[in-house]
Design brief:
Distance between the termini: 26 Å
Helix content: 55-70%
Shape: elongated
Strand order of the largest sheet: 1-2-3
Largest sheet: 3 strands, antiparallel
Strand content: under 5%
Radius of gyration: 26 Å
Number of helices: 11
Structural class: mainly alpha
Length: 296
């Protein structure tokens, strides 16, 4: 049985489909999710909690969130859409500001009040200065640099202290760890949906759970083998690289199949009933997965 950590619980919350009730959306924890409206679209996004996930995990598990937009801006590959998203009310506030300013300016202009006209001119420039500041991309990058320099130095010392194996293979370590967390989240979601769709005791429930168990066993073997290559390999050769990539590809294949199963279950749970042929297809797909992974 998988023990949930705060990180895995948060990833599970971010990746679990939303629940809708009375035209409102809720996450898996029952929290109300508010609509976020930009100039170009309307979004319904689950925002990650603070100080739980790393920047890389936020980009991976909540790429459309405001937190992800902040990460992209800090790292220098954000864009205007990210800025507008994290400053969501700004366009509406600026628009209202200028509407009010124009309404005041019209009678002032016709009354030829020179002093007030200069004051209004200054007031019309103030928002432009503010907009110039928030739309400068390097503003966010500088904040990231100042706030995270100590964190990076500390992390580098930790990495150096615990460094084993060939350094060039270490780039795969984070991918392996992220995939392990993602699999734990996905398989837990799958188990919950199976239980909801096929209330035990049922033969179909037992078959699905047995297949998930087998998938988990295969995934753990691939993850362990990949970690051993990263930590124990004496040199970096094409053969080592190919073997490592094949293990990671196998892990991704298992996760993708679990994700397909989750999507199918979500669709079928909302239906009044599911045909036996649909159930048979789902089971065959999962059984084929456990067989095909052995070929990696």
């Amino acid at each position: 049985m998988t023990i949930e950590t705060p990180k895995s619980s948060e990833i599970k919350r971010l990746t679990t489909p939303l629940k809708f009730k009375d035209s409102k959306a809720y996450d898996s924890s029952g929290n109300l999710i508010k609509y976020s409206e930009t100039l170009s679209d309307v979004r319904l996004i689950v925002e990650p909690k603070e100080n739980v996930l790393s920047d890389e995990e936020i980009l991976q598990f909540a790429p459309l969130s405001k937190a992800a937009s902040r990460v992209r801006l800090k790292r220098g590959f954000g864009n205007v859409q990210d800025i507008l998203y994290i400053h969501e009310p700004i366009p509406w506030i600026i628009g209202l500001y200028y509407v009010i300013l124009i309404c005041i300016a019209i009678p002032v202009f016709y009354a030829n009040m020179t002093t007030l006209m200069y004051v209004l001119l200054i007031l019309s420039i103030v928002p432009l200065v503010y907009l110039y500041h928030i739309f400068r991309l390097n503003t966010y990058q500088q904040v990231d640099k100042d706030n995270n320099v100590d964190i990076h130095q500390t992390q580098n010392k930790i990495d150096a202290k615990h460094s084993n194996g060939v350094e060039s293979l270490k780039v795969y370590e984070k991918d392996i760890n992220n995939l392990k967390v993602l699999f734990d989240v996905k398989q837990e979601v799958a188990r919950e949906l199976i239980k909801k769709r096929f209330e035990p005791p049922q033969i179909t429930y037992d078959k699905f759970i047995a297949t998930i168990d087998k998938s988990e066993e295969l995934f753990n073997k691939q993850a362990e083998a990949a970690s051993n290559i990263v930590n124990l390999a004496a040199e970096d050769t094409p053969r080592i690289q190919n073997e490592l990539k094949s293990k990671i590809d196998a892990m991704k294949t298992i996760i993708n199949q679990i994700e397909d199963l989750i999507n199918e279950l979500v669709i079928n749970i909302s239906a009044s009933e599911q045909s036996s042929e649909d159930v048979k297809t789902l089971l065959e797909d999962m059984e084929n997965l456990t067989t095909s992974v052995k070929d990696y």
